């Protein structure tokens, strides 16, 4: 069977592709710019755009499993083409759909749930890879500056997200399930900085920003006020789902969720000063 992965060049999409390849599946990776794609040997790359459903028709030929994201286009806006995508998938004979959704309800998710193809929702909390935002500051100044440094997160390794999606796309028993995904522990910003320092072999300083200082930094980075307000609320009042460990990764994949220490070791070089 062939499995089509949309968002294949993204943080999670690449992991879905890699896990499916590891499992010996035939994978077709969808991207708006195949020339910039870099996938494992044997992965077929196709050009299509989720905001233009008709471009999916050739990509869906012979596909039995479909991994979907809920946004698309150059500016990653929420998709409004869900009904058309689901109808095309059903017509093509797709048997299973997974949807990556970390941002709450979406039009695409609604369309998938209302359709006639078996679906599984994959809903991770904070990605461990978000920590890469600190890389430049750590490399150049050996420091991290963040607000609410005691906030808790049950952050999840992106490879575990990909592994859960791959299982749901290739094995029975996951239809109609919503899988919240976390790592195996809750960590503060202080914990993450300490673990990163150990992985790279050099101390990292931590400066706590006030809410006003954080808002100003984000404003200078080009964020609008709505996004800034959202971040201040989430960081200052992390929802319970974002700081509560669940065992979904282990139940679905049969092995424990990866730790942040493992992620830090894998990415240690990114946080080391460059010669």
Biggest pleated sheet: 7 strands, parallel
Helical content (DSSP H or I, runs of 4+): 25-40%
> How much is the radius of gyration in Å?
19 Å
Terminal-residue CA separation: 47 Å
What is the CATH level 1 assignment of the largest domain?
Alpha Beta
The succession of helices and strands, N to C, reads: EHEEHEEEHEHEHEHEHEHHHH
Please tell me the total number of domains: 2
Low-confidence stretches at least 5 residues in length (pLDDT < 50)?
none
Question: Count of helices?
Answer: 11
Helix/strand/pairing category: alpha/beta
Q: How much β-strand is present in the residues?
A: 15-25%
Form type: globular
What fold name goes in the CATH topology slot of the largest domain? Rossmann fold
Q: Tell me how many strands there are.
A: 11
CATH architecture of the largest domain: 3-Layer(aba) Sandwich
**What's the rounded overall pLDDT mean?**
94
CATH homologous superfamily (4th level) name of the largest domain? NAD(P)-binding Rossmann-like Domain
Strand order in the sheet with the most strands: 3-2-1-4-7-8-10
């Amino acid at each position: 069977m062939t499995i089509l992965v949309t968002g294949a060049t993204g943080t999670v999409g690449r992991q879905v592709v890699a896990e499916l390849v590891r499992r010996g599946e035939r994978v077709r990776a969808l991207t708006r710019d195949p020339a910039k794609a870099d996938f494992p040997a044997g992965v077929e790359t196709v050009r299509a755009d989720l905001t233009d459903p008709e471009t999916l028709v050739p990509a869906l030929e012979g596909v039995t499993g479909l991994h979907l994201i809920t946004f698309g286009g150059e500016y990653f806006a929420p998709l409004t083409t869900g009904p058309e995508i689901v109808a095309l998938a059903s017509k093509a004979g797709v048997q299973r759909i997974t949807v990556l959704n970390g941002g709450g309800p979406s039009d695409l998710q609604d369309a998938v749930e209302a359709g006639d193809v078996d679906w599984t929702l994959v809903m991770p909390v904070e990605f461990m890879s978000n920590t890469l935002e600190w890389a430049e500051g750590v490399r150049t100044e050996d420091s991290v500056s963040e607000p609410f440094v005691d906030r808790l997160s049950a952050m999840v390794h992106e490879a575990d997200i990909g592994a859960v999606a791959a299982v749901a796309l290739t094995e029975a028993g996951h239809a109609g399930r919503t899988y919240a995904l976390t790592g195996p522990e809750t960590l503060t910003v202080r914990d993450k900085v300490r673990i990163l320092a150990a992985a790279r072999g050099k101390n990292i300083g931590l400066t706590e920003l006030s809410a006003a200082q954080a808002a100003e930094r984000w404003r200078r980075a080009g964020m609008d006020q709505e996004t800034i307000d959202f971040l201040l609320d989430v960081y200052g009042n992390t929802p319970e789902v974002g700081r509560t460990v669940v065992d979904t990764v282990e139940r679905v994949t049969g092995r424990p969720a990866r730790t942040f220490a493992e992620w830090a070791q894998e990415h240690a070089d990114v946080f080391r000063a460059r010669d």
